[in-house]
Write a structure and sequence with these properties.
Helix content: 25-40%
Largest sheet: 6 strands, antiparallel
Radius of gyration: 20 Å
Structural class: alpha+beta
Length: 183
């Protein structure tokens, strides 16, 4: 006979509302899957588009992210577009054969483009910086509500979106497509 003991902490209301806890404590035999609809931001086995060398670094950043599920969905969609690659960054003082750095941000780039990336994305903050030199009026004309314009940094990357909800994800994808098409 095998006995496994679990200890659950929470208010009675929290424990009663947990679908995972209900499934674990329901009378049955065999293993119980715990990745359910209770965990919409559960990370996939592989982060879309990220090279093997960057998987762990990006996974750690997403662990601190306010919206990892939205960030993953952004990558899933943009990496389906023709010739899009997700890259780490080559540091200024890196040796020629040094691996790319995935510990701060990622670059989404249309392969074959003479331009740099069409977006720089920050997994830790779920922030998308786009290669668009738009002002607030242009964003308003597009019906974009969640983007903001930046006044510092590279002049080509002046639009930023923080992923916080479905509307911000839709705005980020719409703007990313504009930036992608312009590169």
């Amino acid at each position: 006979m095998k006995v496994t003991v679990f200890q659950f902490e929470g208010t009675p209301e929290e424990l009663d509302a947990s679908h995972v806890l209900k499934r674990l404590t329901h009378q049955h035999r065999g293993p119980v899957p715990v990745a359910t609809e209770d965990a919409p931001d559960a990370l996939p086995v592989r982060i879309p588009g990220v090279a093997d060398e960057g998987q762990e670094a990006v996974r750690q950043l997403l662990g601190r992210s306010p919206a990892p599920g939205l960030f993953i969905r952004f990558l899933e969609e943009t990496t389906r577009w023709d010739n899009v690659g997700v890259y780490g960054i080559k540091r200024k003082n890196a040796l020629p054969d040094a691996p790319l750095d995935y510990s701060r941000y990622l670059r989404l780039r249309r392969q074959g483009s003479q331009f740099g990336g069409f977006a720089y994305v920050y997994a830790e903050y779920s922030t998308i910086n786009l290669r668009l030199n738009y002002n607030q009026q242009q964003l308003d004309e597009l019906g974009i509500k969640s983007a903001r314009t930046l006044t510092t940094g590279h002049r080509e990357y002046r639009v930023s979106v923080d992923l916080t909800d479905e509307a911000s994800l839709a705005d980020a994808l719409q703007l990313a497509e504009l930036a992608y098409n312009a590169t």
